[in-house]
Amino acid sequence: MDIDTTLVRERFVIKSADPDLRDLAKPTYAQSNRMPVSLQTGGMTAEKYVVRAHNMHSCARMVAHMIRDYEKGGPLLHRVIPYKWQEVWSDVVSDYELAYTPERWVCVYHQGDPVYHFGKRNPFLDIVEKCAFVSKGDYDSSIKLAEEAYRAAGKNVQITYEGGIAIVVKIERERGRLGMIFRGPERSTTFNFTVEMAKTVPISAYQCLRVAAALLEGIQLGFLVGLANEKIKEKLIDATSHEARQAREAKRRLSMLNGEISALETHYRVHYRPERPDFNRIILETEKMAPRYLEGLTDTSKKNRDLWE
Prior knowledge:
The protein has a 9-stranded antiparallel beta sheet with strand order 5-4-3-2-1-6-7-8-9, sandwiched between helices. It contains 9 helices and 9 strands. It folds into 2 domains: 1-170, no CATH class; 172-309, no CATH class. Helices cover 44% and strands 27% of the residues. The radius of gyration is 21 Å and the shape is globular. It has helices at 56-73, 85-92, 95-100, 124-134, 139-152, 205-233, 242-267, 279-294, 300-308; strands at 3-16, 28-39, 47-53, 106-110, 113-118, 157-171, 175-183, 188-196, 269-273. It is an alpha+beta fold. The longest helix has 29 residues, at 205-233.
């Protein structure tokens, strides 16, 4: 199956457009990671979905599993035996996330309506997806439609939108190319990898997206581990603290992610540009820059989540 899509980090700010309330009413923020996907292969019925999730890697993995299951069993909706969305989401979520990401959520939309959701999301996102479907893919117009929907409900609001690309995906039978932008504490880095057929095995979009998710998650966890190591060294946290335990579990999680990335390299010819991210090196580099990052920081765990999720 050919896949051509983009995962975007999004942030909406909804504030009053009423001159009398503009400075008094607090704005509402809605953050999300969004990835649309069109499923179609052979003569099977095409289906289009949008997946939104709390973090980037879970969003990409959910899309990957949907692609895999469509290729194996055809369209996901209207099956004789209903598609088991909850089981799929359970497969997406690792034991590490079960333990350390209680705020996780996901929502899958079809024709503007949720067909599956887990966890608590901002309801504004449902309005945006409904408007995006009505505007037939003109995403910029959907923001204006959302403002009109609020006005129709008696609320005069202004909506501002910020979006940043996290993954660009183009996968065909014989070749796949995935580009990623990592937003770090001091700079953003662009990275891509290409996957080419080895022998006669077609490129697996499922496996490629899983590896893209592993790279994203691994870089995030490398930062988390390096930061925790420096905080233990400087006696800012105790080695028995919750944050230190989380860092140890993150280190174990990194080993699993490395294994998944290496598995792709055994099945296909994989080329990295500039090079495959080294999670251990990310940990060491984070330890070096951690003193600057920690200086004057009063809530590091919150800043870490805001920066990377």
